[in-house]
Each structure stands twice: as structure tokens, then as C-alpha cells.
Amino acid sequence: MADGLPTEFDVVIIGTGLPESILAAACSRSGQRVLHIDSRSYYGGNWASFTFSGLLSWLKEYQQNSDIGDKSTATWQDLIHETEEAITLHRKDETIQHTEVFCYVRQDMDDNIEEIDDLQKNPSLVTSGTLSKLLDSACLSEEMHSLYGTSHGISAKEIPKNDGEILLEVTGIEESQVKEKYYGDKTCIHTFADGDKDENKPIVEDNTDLPKRNRITYSQLVKEGRKFNIDLVSKLLYSQGLLIDLLIKSNVSRYAEFKNVTRILTFREGKVEQVPCSRADVFNNKELTMVEKRMLMKFLTFCLDYEQHPDEYQDFTQCSFSEYLKTKKLTPNLQHFVLHSIAMTESSCTTIDGLKATKNFLQCLGRFGNTPFLFPLYGQGEIPQCFCRMCAVFGGIYCLRHKVQCLVVDKESGRCKAIIDHFGQRINAKYFIVEDSYLSEETCSNVQYKQISRAVLITDQSVLKTDSDQHISILIVPPAEPGMCAVRVTELCSSTMTCMKDTHLVHLTCSSSKTAREDLESVVKKLFTPYAETEIDREELTKPRLLWALYFNMRDSSGISRSSYSGLPSNVYVCSGPDCALGNEHAVKQAETLFQEIFPGEEFCPPPPNPEDIVFDGDDKQPEAPGTNNIIMAKLESSE
Amino acid sequence: MHGRLKVKTSEEQAEAKRLEREQKLKLYQSATQTVFQKRQAGELDESVLELTSQILGANPDFATLWNCRREVIQRLEAQKSPEELAALVKAELGFLESCLRVNPKSYGTWHHRCWLLGRLPEPNWTRELELCARFLEVDERNFHCWDYRRFVAAQAAVPPSEELAFTDSLITRNFSNYSSWHYRSCLLPQLHPQPDSGPQGRLPEDVLLKELELVQNAFFTDPNDQSAWFYHRWLLGRADPQDALRCLHVSRDEACLTVAFSRPLLVGPRTETLLLMVDESPLAVEWRTPHGRNRPSHVWICDLPTTSLNDQLPQHTFRVIWTTGDTQKECVLLKGHQEGWCRDSATDEQLFRCELSVEKSTVLQSELESCKELQELEPENKWCLLTIILLMRALDPLLYEKETLQYFQTLKAVDPMRAAYLDDLRSKFLLENSVLKMEYAEVRVLQLAHKDLTVLCHLEQLLLVTHLDLSNNRLQALPPALAALRCLEVLQVNDNAIESLDGVTNLPRLQELVLCNNRLQQPGALRPLASCPKLVLLNLQGNPLCQIVGTLEHLAELLPSVSSILT
């Protein structure tokens, strides 16, 4: 693989998370020669999405992470000249901790568990990323033809997979039958031998007691595993947010499809209910009285341009937003809606911050639908890949499973001049962008990280059933006691292409105070009940049932300032991993700031030119030059 | 920097665009010309379809070309086999759809589709309904498509309940949708027909209450959205009043009969619209309007021959039959009496309450309460204020008079753009109230001084008034309709802003006219008064024309019969 790889670049980017990918696209678009590499076998780093089996492999990797020895350290020390010194990079990812898996459905070991689709030899395809294979190639020009020839307008979901069949390794799960528990960095897996009791009973297919509730077994989850696209970070796009603007401006949006979030839900007095937030919602709401409707609309309308009416809030700038809401003639349920589900703030937030958040929410309404949020089909993991694709279109080169051993620093200038990869190959560049999980302990010795608590649940029903089971909902569960964090729940339906039919994929997120399970389990218990095939309590019947659950903590490095890292040359730039916020504003801001720092005065991700505006210089003198792909693309598109 | 794309400059782009446009224009013009030539030469064949489709594909609003296509299709219908024709229609439908995608609001395209579907032996209406649903999905307020949908629904006999459910779904999505509300107002009476005796176009109470709740949801959510308020007004309104003869007046002195109708109408010279029976035998008469203009009018007059008025019989009966209105009225002139009349009492018939119905006063009362509740939350909402005024009028115009005037005050302050309209509306309501009070008092004297009136209306209701005081208002003219006041003897219009007197014409009994402190500029403005035979006293003090030298002489010449003119 390394044979064909050029050794001179303008920018080397290590890590394929969202900020790195945006930067890669921006640099490539402005004419830089970009090498974008990732030591992992999939795109996106902690921003990735996985199929069910992909997620299991990912879990296993974290289990085995410590085993990865220094086999390939090769002999890079010899490659460092006397005038140079090396900054080693991390070989082990430590951003994920406390993974715990719970399986509630029956695990029939007789079943020949394998994914229905052909599995690939190429492990990179375990990710949901469909472009992986294409982009994986270092040589792009020829392949890009066919890519653009076939995928006009539709994302290339149908790219044929390898024919090779591999049985999914389920050993990790089988072992778990022994109820092994690992703590710390180890994954611990719990199973519930729910099927024990009635294993001998024949299962009646047409269960009249529970006509609506399909039986789902573990083997089904695995078989249909490719229907899942499970995000490691759970985020949504604000319709008027920075990411949407960037996607549109740069034309990267053409590589992705989105669905509008359909419902904003809240949890109040032990019940899940829908929050009316748009004009149509308020109009259609059956719970609110006429006067409540008016008061809510009036308050929301005011928030849209609250700056114009300082007299309305001036006296309350010192109070909390929740105190302020009490003065606005809003009934307690309306206050709850505004505070937790619209402003999505903590009770302690100030009046101005609350108004600002409310305004932001409202401004996003109506651009694409009745809620302010979009969700990318096939998962959040698509977004970094879209930017990578843009980068590749303009000549960027991609290498996955490509480890970097060290950065090479010129002693005299103090600048980084090259990297040395795991083949011992030296690759030169002017600028280096590194995702922070690659930085060694030494570099990060002064850094204090926050943590994000995450849970991923597969459930059998929506938390709020309506006539349609195809809703995308966001639900904020306010903290049970003051001082704790609100938990953000996103529930995805199968039409988002993130889970199999008759299931929902639920993501829980909060900033950590303890381990993910400790932080989130209470909310999970409030909303769901464990899957059981037999008896069902009438009361419990109304709650959706848990089929499978995963808890983990993810490192949040978003607040770390560049100066906290020690010993990094000035031309090495650091991107952080995902933050805890709902939107992607931090990643976009970071990418744009770094880009402006590296290339002051260059436009950040300008729209690609219209095909007809591209000037062809006689007989092309530089047929291999990066960027010519775009001309081919342009030709193909205009001929369609 | 290497690898950077070379892109045309904006001037180059503009130039390229200009050339492209020029090219397009040339093609467009030559194709248009060819079509017109072929049409003139009668060559209505498929080539015309092809050419017009090129032009219409780019500009579907070219109505003449749609006409061309219709001519071609009609011609081809005669020549082609059924199979060929079916293929032609299919292609035409597809082409229409592509035109609609270019411009979903093109009159010509929708019309052509109607025309085409109307000619098909077996039109596929289901497909058409789906097409409408698709276009309304994109733009739920595309009224062209709504029109077409109503056409399709009528042709396909879609049950009104299904169509109502469709409007439900669109209102749920966005209730600012006149078309959708309007469609409801058409469908609901179809779904809930009233028994024959009941007033037409009204809804049963349970349906009405449900609709009121829906529309209240809308205006509590967004009180500034007009569409919901208009629907609200429809819900509470009533169907057009039935045609009626309101008043019949016969005068021996003037030897004429005057009739007032419930709506303005035109009575032609030899039409059978009106039949007059005098003592049960028909009498041919010439009808005219009081002001002498041959226009639709509430009031019509005819001269009677002396034989019909002689004193030999103890009484004469006069019966007027309004044939088209299917109604009649009779009045009696007794021996020794100068006049006779018969009229509907304004109080019985709720003459002035046309805006809103009173049949469900409990409903109106509760609507008034919700509107007042909303008004407390939204003190400056004009729609709410106006609706409150209308509801109050429907409930009891006299009881709420004072309150109504206060709401008018507020309404004018929040909606200064419509101050003049509101003044006129207020004048109308005040006039109605005064007429009601006069009716209750059973007098023929109408006191309208100091009411801040800006306009005079309902004058046809004042046929019998003998004394009218309009002093101290803001009137600028005495309109032609005033000529309907056939019994008027004294008219006081002091302290207004009168500039013209068009209406003070042909008033047979007018004796005294007081016009002090107005804005009459020229003696010529008084010319209409010459047609009032009994006018003896005219007071013009305080008008600009008094300043003109020789005014008095001029007036004496103009109005020789007026014995006393004060300037």
C-alpha cells in the first residue's frame, strides 16, 4: 500500500473525525495536497457509525486494546537524523471507557448467527461507511469517474460488497454467558437468561396476547445487523446551524440525505409528552387550553426578537431563566416546555442565555420542517465521510489502517517537517493536523478531560406511540435532583436507516459525573422495561421494551486549549474529539478557526464552481494534477 | 497555487449567459413564428404539437399556444384510431405535468388539463387526485391546484367527507390557508344539508361548535392570521337574506307609487320583473329610480293615472309582485287620505344584522366571551376587535352600542391605515341603531345630529321619514340614494363638510333645507335643488359660496321657486 503513496504533501491530517474531515475538505478545496490518514479501519474516529456487528467488533477492539503490542515499532529511531527529533504518537486509543453491554433478548445458540448480507474480508467495511472502499484507495482519479457516473444524487449505498463470507465472531457474547465482569477499560457484558424458563415450550408464532409486539431474538438483531447504523456520538443538525450552512455552502450536502426530526418530547410527571413548539404544533395540540396556546405563542414570538424588547427582560438579567419564566404568565407545563425542551437549558442558566437558546431553537424552525433539527440518514457517521469525499474529489489522498509512529521535528526551526508511518516511511509536509487521541501521554500530561456518558439502546417501540411508528424524536429528561445533568435522548426509527424494522434505536447522552451506566441507568428505567417474552405487567405494557443496551464513556476534549499540550511544534494543529452538545457547532468552528490560522485569507470551503464555468486550458498540460477529477465530474454531471 | 481550478470571471460568465439567452430567444421566436404560420395555413398537425411543446415547455403561460394545441387535438381526434388517440392523450397528460413542474401556477396549463380530462371517455380521476395531492404537498396554498382539485372531485363524485378530511390534513400542516378554509365552507353545507324550511347554508349546531373550536385554535395560536378570522366570520354569518319587498308607499298628491326592495335591482322598461295590480287588475306603468339614473337601485317609482287614485271608491289597493324574487306586497290608500303605505318593521326582520346570524345567540355569546378573553391577551389585535364588534351587533346592537363605540375607538388607534373604513362602518352601525330606535318610537322623524357620521347608508329604509337632522357630522356629500326619501319635508345638514348635493333631487315634499357651515363652493352646486318643487327655504350661511359676489342673484335665477334664500 505504501508503495504508491507520494511522500510530499502540503498538509497531513491524522484522524478522520468531523473537524479533521472538514479541514481536509477545506485544504484540498483550496488547492493543497492533502494526505488524510487514520490508524483505525473505519472513517470518523469517535464520530463513526457502526452496523450491529461493526459495533460488536469495535467493542471487542476496546477489550483487546491493551494487547496491541509494539510489534511494528520497526526501526523508526534509525530514521531520525541528527538535526531532528521525534515526537511519538499514541498507539492506543483511550477515549472510550466503562463499556458495558446488556442483552435482554433470547440468545439462541442453535441459530447460525450471521449477518444476512455478505460480510467482507475488508474490515473497514464493517463501518456503515459505504465510501470506505472507494476512498480507501490512494489512487483516485479512475475510480472517481465511476463514482460520479453512478451516484448522481443518491448516496452510493448500493455499492456491491465483497462476496467473501465470514461468520461473525460472537465469541465475546458467548463468553459472556459465564457472566464475566471486567472493570475499568474492559468491556463487561451482562446477559439475562430470560429464555431459560420457556425454552422447551414451543413458541407460538401468532401470539394473540400480544398481537402488536413482535418477538425479536438476538439472532435476528445479528442477522439484520447491517440495517443498523449506530452512532458513537448522538448529535443532530440545527437547521440554521453552522454545519448545515457549511454543507450547503460547500455543496457537500449533495453527498448526504437528511430527515427532519419529527417530534420534540419531554418527560414530565412521569409521562412522555410531545412539546408543541411550532405554530402548527400549537394549533394541533389537544392538551393546551386556548389561553395557554396564546401565552406560549406570545412568549415564543417575543423570544424571536427579544433584543428588540429589552424592557421585557431587563429587570430579570440577574435571575435564572426559570425564575424569569415564572413572571411571564406561563403555566407550569409551559414553563417546563420552554426551559427543558425548547431552550434546553439547565434551570440555573441566566435569563439572557435562556432567551438566546430559545431564539436559536425558534430560528431553526420551519427551514426544513416543523422542528429545528435534521438527522443524517445512515447516521451521523456519514457527515465526516461526506467531507472526506469532497477532499478526495479535489485530489486528497486517503489511507485507513495507517499508523503514524512519530512526528519529525527539525531541531533548528522547531517546526515539524514529516511523519514516519508504520512502514517506516517518511512523509513530508508543511502542516500537520492531529486529532487529540493520537497525542501521547507525554504531550498531554497537563490536560484534564471531561467525559461524556453514552448509552445505546435497541428497543421494540417508541417512547410515545402514535399512529405512525416512523418518528424521529428528541427527548430531554430533566435532572431528577438539582445539580445533576439533564439527559438527552434521541430516538431513531427504522426509516432513518439506522435500525432494523420494528425496532427503535435510542441514544442517551449526558456529561458524566460517574460511569455511563451510573449516570444513565435511572433514566433508562424510567422510560423502558427489560424485554420479556412471557408475562407482562399491564402497567409495564405501555413502556417500550429494551432488547439490547450498551453503556460507555467517551472522552470530551472539546474544551482543551492548544496551550495545554506540551512540546508541540507550531505547525502541528490539534483537533478535539466530539463534545457533549447537541449540535456540531464546536467541530465546525474549530475547523474553520484552524483553517484560517493555517491559511489566512483563504476562503473556507467555497462552493465548487459550476461545471460550465470551468476553463479548459487548451490541451491539458497537467492531466494528473489534483482537481482534474472535478472536471470529469463536471462533464458527467452536465451530460446527465 | 497549483491544482487550483481555473474558473471564468464574472464578466466572462455574464457574456456566456448573454449569448446563451440570445440563442434561446432566437429559437423561441422562430418556433413561435412557425406555429403562427402553420395555424394560419390551417396545417394543424402533429408538428404543431411538437413546436408548441418546445415553447410551452419553457413558458407555459403562452395562452394562445394552448389554444393551438386544442385545435390540433380536436382535428386529430377525427383522424386517429382510438389506440393512437390514447397514446396522444397519454403524451399530452405527461407533457402537462412537466409544464406544471415548470410553473405550478400557470392558468393556461391547469385549464388545458381540465379541458383534456373533460374530453376523455374514461378519465382516470384517481390519478388526477393524486396529482393534486402531490402539488399541494409542495405548496399547500396553490389555489390553481385547489381549483383543479374541486373540478376533479366534482367530476369523480368524491364524497365530501373525503375531501373534508383532505382539508383537515392541510390545515393541520399550516392553517394559514384560505383555499382550504374556503373548501370547508363549501363542503360542510353539502355534508349537513338543512331541512327545506331552515335557513340555507347554515350548519347544525354540533358541527358548528366543532368548527368554531378548530378556528379558535387557529386564532389563539396566531391572532394575526386573517384566513382563520374570515372563516370564523363565515361560520357565524348567515346566507344572503331572502328577496323581499320592504316597503310600499302610495301618494295621492304626487300620484305615484314607491317600492323599496331588499337588494338593488334593475327594472327594465318592458321587463316583467315587476307587476302592479291596482284594485286587482294589472296596470302597465313605467318604472324609474328616484334619482333618475338607470342603475340598479333599492327604490323604484312609478306614476299612477288619476283613475287609480280617484276618491269614488272607499279605498284602492295596490299590489306589487316581484316575479323573480317570488314575493309581493300590498298597500291600501283609503278615501280621504293623502298617502298609504305598508312596510316591514326593521325590528322584526333584523334588517341590519346581515353580518352575523342571531339564530344561535348562545353560540354567539360564548364566541364573544372567547374573543374578549383573547382581546385581553392581545389588546391590539384588530381582527379580534372587529370580531367583537360584529358579535355585539349580532347579539344586541342597542344594548352594546356604547361598548361598540369604545371598541371602534381602540380599533382605529391600532389600525390607523383603515381609519376611514372604520369610520364608515361605525357610521353605518350608528345609522342602523338610530333607525331601530325610530322604529321602536314609531315616528317619522330621524335624529342623526352629532354622531360623527362620515357616510350615509340604508337610505332606502327611510322612505317614510319626513324630518331628517344630519347636523354636526362629517359628511362630505348627500349621495344620490337620498332621493329615495320621498316624504322628506325638512332636511337639516348644518356643520358638515358638504361639497355636493347630488342626492337632494326630485324630493317632492322638501320644503326646508338648512346647509349652514358647509363647504359649498359654487352656486352651481345647488342646481339639483331645482328639481324639488316645494322647496321654499334654503339656508346657506357659512358656506364659501356666500363670499362670491352675485351669488344671491345667481341663486335666484337658478332656483326661482325658492322664496327665501339665506346667505
Can you describe what's shown?
- Chain B: Pfam families: LRR_9, PPTA, RabGGT_insert.
- Chain B: Belongs to the protein prenyltransferase subunit alpha family.
- Chain B: InterPro entries: Leu-rich_rpt (IPR001611), LRR_dom_sf (IPR032675), Prenyl_trans_a (IPR002088), RabGGT_asu_insert-dom_sf (IPR036254), RabGGT_asu_insert-domain (IPR009087).
- Chain B: Keywords: Leucine-rich repeat, Phosphoprotein, Prenyltransferase, Repeat, Transferase.
- The complex is a heterodimer of chains A (640) and B (567).
- Chain A is an alpha/beta fold.
- Helices cover 27% and strands 19% of the residues of chain A.
- Chain A has 18 helices and 24 strands.
- In chain A, α1 (18-29) packs parallel to α14 (382-393), α1 (18-29) runs parallel beside α17 and α5 (141-150) packs parallel to α18 (628-639).
- Chain B is of the alpha/beta class and 567 residues long.
- Helix content of chain B is 46%, strand content 13%.
- Chain B has helices at 10-40, 46-58, 63-79, 82-102, 107-119, 125-138, 143-155, 160-173, 178-191, 205-221, 226-236, 346-349, 361-377, 382-395, 401-414, 419-441, 551-558; strands at 245-251, 256-265, 274-278, 281-283, 287-288, 297-303, 315-322, 327-334, 339-343, 445-447, 467-469, 490-492, 512-514, 537-539, 564-566.
- In chain B, the strands form 3 sheets. In chain B, strands 10-11-12-13-14-15 form a 6-stranded parallel sheet. In chain B, strands 5-6-2-1-9 form a 5-stranded antiparallel sheet, with no helix packed on it. A 4-stranded antiparallel sheet of chain B has the order 4-3-7-8, with no helix packed on it.
- In chain B, a hairpin with an 8-residue loop joins β5 and β6.
- Chain B is elongated and about 95 Å long.
- The A-B interface holds A 30-31, 33, 279-280, 282-284, 290-291, 293-295, 297-298, 394-395, 609, 612-615, 617, 622, 625-627, 630-631 and B 1-8, 13, 16, 172-175, 216-218, 220-223, 370, 373-374, 377-378.
